[in-house]
Amino acid sequence: MSLLAVERIRAGYSEEVDILQGVSLQVEQGQIVAIIGPNGAGKSTLLKAIFGILRPKEGRVVFDGEDITGLPPETVVRKGMSYVPQVRNVFPSLTVQENLEMGAFIRRDGFFERIEEIYRMFPDLREKRHQKVGRLSGGQRQMVAMGRALMLDPKLLLLDEPSAGLAPAMVEMVFEKIREINRRGVAVLIVEQNAKEALKFSDHGYVLAMGRNALDGPGQELLRNEEVAKLYLGG
Amino acid sequence: MEWGGILAYLVSFAIMASIYAVFCLGLNVQWGYTGLFNIGIAGFFCLGAYTSALITTPKPTGVYAQYVKQLFGLGLPFPFGLLGAALICGLVAFLVGIPTLRLREDYLAIATIGIAETFRLIFNNEQWLANGPRGLMGLPQPLQGLVPPEYYNYLYLGIVFSVMWLIYLAIELAIRSPWGRVLKAIREDEISAAMSGKDVFRFKMQSLVLGSMIMGIGGALYAHYTKAISPDVFTPLYGTFIIWVMLMAGGSGNNRGAILGAFLVWGIWIGTKFLTDLLPYTMKARAPYIRFLIVGILLELILIYRPQGILGEEKRVSRFLED
Amino acid sequence: MLELFVYGIVLGSIIALGAIGLTLVYGILRFANFAHGELMTAGAYVALFFVGTLLPRLGIPNDPLSPFSFGWRMVVAFPLAMAAVAAVAVLLDRVLYRKLRQKGSTAVMMAMSALGASLILRMIVLILWGGDYRSFFPGVLRPAVELPLGIKVRPDQILILAVATVLVVLLHLFLHHTKIGKAMRATADNMELARISGIRTERIIVWTWVIGGCLAAAGGVLYGIDVQIHPGMGWNFLLPLFAAAILGGIGKVYGALIGGLVIGVLQQLSTAWLLPTYKPAVAFIGMIVILLLRPQGIFGGKD
C-alpha cells in the first residue's frame, strides 16, 4: 500500500475554473517523488489540494491508509504530513527557536530531543536561534521553514519549490538537506522548477502539464528522456 | 383620525424618506459604485444644512444680533441655498480627500468619522459661526406664499421628490457612461484598473466629491423642511448610521435600492415608534434607545443573511452592453 | 504645562490599554474593530453594576482604602468586569464576526458589522442605565498629592499608571513566554502557516478577544475611576484608540502602547489652547498627520 495515493484530483481556486483536471500520483514509504512541469501546470495547486488548503472538487487523497480528502490543514498535519509553502513559509517576527516551537505546537512529548535533532541537522540555525527569522538570509529562512515542518517527525514532507529565489550555492545546500532528511526515513514530495536537480535525487518523477498527468517514471529515466529534456530540463 | 390627518402624516413621512433617499443616493455613488467606506455622512449632512441656512437667512442685525450669531447671512433664495450646500460640500470633500483617499478602506472610514466629529464639534462650540449649540431657527421655505400653510408640506414634498428624481436620473446617466464603467472596474479590482492606466485616485476623488455634493443637497432639503437646525441633530446615529442601514437594506450598488431602502427603513423606524408607544410610562424615556437597538440588530441581520440587500446590485452598467 | 503632561501620561495609559487590544485584534483578525470603544464602556458599566448594585447586596464594604477613592468593592469588581467584557467580546465573535468570517466577508463588511455591534452595545447601556454621567463613588473627596516640581496628582492616577503597567507587563510575559502567546504572535504574522503547523486558529481568535476585552474593560474602569463614566465614552475613545494604534503601527503591541501615551499627552496638552471637548478632534488631526508622513506608523514595516 502506498504511503500517499492521490486519485484523479480535480481542483481550482474558483467555482468556474479548474486548475487540476484529474491528476493522480503515488508516493511509497521513504521515497523522494518530484513533480515537475511548466509554469501554470498546477504543481503548487496539487500540493495545496493534498494538504487541505484547497478542497478538491473531485477525487481522493489517501494517506497511510486513511481517506483525508478535503480535511483542513490543521487536521492533516496531525496525521503525519507536513507542508512547506513556497512563499511566506516562516513567521518573520518570531525567533528561529520560536518558529521551531510553533512547528511542534501540537507535539505532546519529546520536544527537547526533537529540537536538538533539528539543530544537529541545521547547525547554522543553532547559533542564530534567538534571532528574528525576518532578518535571516533567504537560504537560512528556507532552513527554518523546513525545520519547522520537521518538528513533528512527519512521515511525508511536501515541499513547494524549496530552491526558488536562492543563490546556486544555497540551492546545492537545500538539496543536500533534502537528501539527508530522506535518508532518515521521511518520504518527500517535492515540486520543483529546477527539474534536472530534482530528478537527480528522486526515486520517481511526475510531469504535470495543463493540470493533467503528462508523463511519469523513475527519476533517472525521466532525466534521460529526450522529450522531457527538451521541454523541461533546458536541453 | 380623519383622512386629512392621515394624509398629512403620510406626506411628512414621504418628505423625510425622500430626503434620506437623497443621502442614500449620494452614499451609493461613493460606496455602492466606488467602494469608499464613508462613515462621516453626518458631517456633510451638517455642513450642507448649515451652509444652506447661512446662505438663505439674512445676517442678524440690531437687537436680534445679540441672540443669534452667524458668520454670514446672505438672504438669498432657496435654490442658492441648495447650490451653495452642494458646492461647499464638494469643496470640503475635495480637501478631505487629498490626504485620505490613498489610504486603505478602513483607514478612510476612521478618517471620515474624524471629519464628521470635528465638524460637529466646531459647529457646536464656535458660537460666532452659526450660533453654537442653540443653532439656527426660522429658516425660510421655498415658495412659501404660494399655498396656505396647512397645505405647504404637499408643495415641499413635490420639491423634494423632484430633486430626488433629478439626482436619481443624473446618477443613472453617469453610471452608464464610460466614467461609470471605470468606477465599477476600480471597485471590482483596483490593482488591475490601476495597471490598465486609469488614474484611480482621480476617479475616487470625483466619486467622493459627487457623492458629498448630493449629501449636501440632502442636508439643505432637511434644513428647510424642519426650519430649525442645531448641532445635536447631526449625530452619528441619525446622520450616518441610519443611512447605511437604508442603503444596505435596499441594495448597495443599485440606485432604486437606495430609494427603496430609504423608504423601507424609515418606515421601520416610524414603525418602532408605534411599538415603543406601547411601553409602560417608566420606560418611555428609553424609547429612542430601544428603537435604535432594533435598527442595529436589523443591520446585523442584513449583513449576515442578505448583504446584497433586497434588490442587490444592478446588473447592467451600460445600455450598450447586452448580457 | 508639566502637569498637563503628567495627566496626559495617565490618560495615555488608559488609551494604550484600549489601543493594544485594538491592534491585537487588527493583527490577527485583520479588521478594524469599531466596537472596541464600546468594550471599554461595557467594562466601566459592568464595574458600576458590581460596585453599585451587586456587591453591596453581598455585604462587601465600600470604605475607601486611603489614599484612594475606592474600596474593596472596586478591587473585587475590577477583575470581574474584565472577565465579563471578555465574555461579551467572545460572544460577539461567535454570534457575528465568525459567521462573516466563514462566509469570507471582506474587511469592510466586518468593520461595518462592528459598527453595528457598537451601536447595539451602546443602546443596551443606555437602556439599562440611561444617558447621565455617573461616578463610581459619588461624594468621595479625592485630594491631590503634591509631587516634586509642584505637580499635583491624585493617588488614584498614580494607581492607574501602576495598574496599566502591570497589565502590560503581564501581557508581555504572556505573548513571549507562553505557548498560546507565541501562537498568537505567529498567527498575527501568518495565519495560513499557523494552520499548516496545526495551530487551531479559531482558538487563537477566542484568546485574542479575551485579551482585547480584558484590556479594554480595564481601560474603561480606570477611566471611570479617574473621571466619570457615560454611555458615549466609548465612541469618544474611538478616534484616540485608532490614532494610537495607527501611530504605533497596526498590529504592533508596543507601538500601540507608545502611541497611546503620545495621543494622551497630545490631547491633554491641547487643553491649554482648546476646549476639552475638542480632544477627539486633536487625536484625529494627529492621526491624519501620521498617515500623511509615515502611514505604517513608528514600528510598522512593509506590510
The helix fraction of chain B, in percent, is 55-70%
User: Sheet with the most strands of chain B?
Assistant: none
The CATH architecture of the largest domain in chain A can be given as: 3-Layer(aba) Sandwich
Would you tell me the overall average pLDDT of chain B?
87
- Helical amount of chain A: 25-40%
The count of DSSP E runs of length 2 or more, i.e. the number of strands of chain B, is 0
| SSE topology string of chain B | HHHHHHHHHHHHH
* Multimerization status: heterotrimer
Distance between the termini of chain B: 51 Å
| Structural class based on helices, strands and sheet pairing of chain A | alpha/beta
In terms of DSSP E residues, the strand content of chain B is under 5%
Low-pLDDT stretches of chain A: none
Number of self-contained structural domains of chain A = 2
CATH topology of the largest domain in chain A: Rossmann fold
Count of helices of chain B?
A: 13
Task: Please provide a written account of the structure.
The complex is a heterotrimer of chains A (235), B (323) and C (303). In chain A, 37% of the residues lie in helices and 24% in strands. Chain A is built from 10 helices and 10 strands. Chain A has helices spanning 43-51, 73-76, 96-103, 111-121, 123-127, 138-150, 168-183, 195-201, 219-224, 226-232, and strands spanning 4-11, 20-27, 32-36, 58-63, 66-67, 81-84, 156-160, 187-191, 204-209, 212-218. In chain A, strands 6-7-8-3-9-10 form a 6-stranded mixed beta sheet, sandwiched between helices. The mean pLDDT of chain A is 91. Chain B has helices at residues 3-32, 41-56, 64-67, 78-100, 105-125, 127-130, 152-176, 178-188, 190-195, 200-226, 236-250, 255-277, 287-305. The longest helix of chain B has 30 residues, at 3-32. With 303 residues, chain C is mostly helical. Chain C has one domain (19-231). Chain C has a two-stranded antiparallel ribbon. The termini of chain C are far apart. Chains in contact: A-C, B-C.
